Amino acid sequence: MEGIFAKAGFPMGVVQVAHGGKEVGAAFTNGKPDYIFFTGSVRTGKIIQQVASKHLIPTTLELGGKDPMIVFADAHLERAAKGAVWAAFTNSGQVCMSAERLYVEKSIYPKFLSLLKKEILNLKQGNNEDDDVGSMTFPAQIEILRDQLEDALSKGARLETGLMPEKWNNGMFLPLIVVTNVNHDMKIIQEESFGPILPVIPFESEDEVISLANDTVYGLNASVWSNDHVKARRVSSKLVSGAVVINDAIISIAHHGLPFGGAKQSGIGRYHGDAGLRIFCHEKAIVEDIGRKKSEIHWYPYQGKYPLFLQLFKSYFQANRNWIIFSKTYLRILKKN
Q1: How many C-beta neighbours within 10 Å does residue 253 have?
Q2: Model confidence over 259-317: pLDDT tens digits?
Q3: Rg (CA), the chain
Q4: Does domain 67-255 bear CATH number 3.40.309.10?
Q5: Residue 235 to residues 91, 183, 227, 246: CA-CA distances in angstroms?
Q6: Which residues are catalytic?
Q7: Is there a contact between 103 and 69 (Cβ–Cβ < 8 Å)?
Q8: Where are the domains of the chain?
Q9: Among 90, 143, 220, 265, which one has the highest count of C-beta atoms within 10 angstroms of its own C-beta?
Q10: CB-based contacts of 270, cutoff 8 Å, min separation 6
């Protein structure tokens, strides 16, 4: 990465890369930098924020997500099924904006579940360029997924696709899993999964699904699928989320002109766009006067000025500004200097 910036003409040392684990990150944070931008887990983000707060170091934290995908009965169901499979399993689910909760309107629930399973059967896992889904990258994350799935199954969840945890092999490829008969008391709904697991929940009303979608500590991204654009926008406005995509998923992050970030425990601050560049700057206001006048009307002395100031403000802030009174009053105050 340093080499790329050097080729682009950046001065030596402006961009520096350090490789390492949490020890390196802790050294950076404790070194009292001017700014901290962090992408990672909620747990680590909270640790960084605690250290930064002691020295009032500004931060931007892009943390985890448990993104809801909402499919209404009037959506393009084939498109929504394909979109759900991609949003849940792209990069084997290792995307912070992955669809990790799928809410489907009850009247189409059986049909949509069938479409979803059909799409998953067509996917190929592997490392080749023609394969669809790759492997996990972090062994510890597999154990997190195992724990979430075992918790859900022990509480009555049903496996629609994939394998039971005890049948997983010891490699990094996990089966693509769809789980039903889940509820909001389960880890698989409340905790970030970051892997190829998709729980599916039916809903009956708009108000119900909004409440369900907002019922986690996360708020990074979401998607709403409906051909009723008024309804889709209405629902989107009520979701506590850093971004909402209508009839698509995840892609808001690819639009560099849009601010990106999360609500609740999904993070602090926004990046991308003009605002994303300004967070790395200390903005400074400079006001300059020509400096020719001997004094200013708001400077001392104040003797005899109060009634005039009152009249000045009233003439300016009243419904119909009276510029004649304003000008005469200003000149009278000026003479008192």
Answers
A1: 18
A2: 999 999 999 999 998 889 899 999 899 999 999 999 999 999 999 999 999 999 999 99
A3: 28
A4: yes
A5: 28, 21, 13, 10
A6: 62, 96
A7: yes
A8: 67-255, 289-337
A9: 220
A10: 60, 242, 259, 260, 261, 276, 279
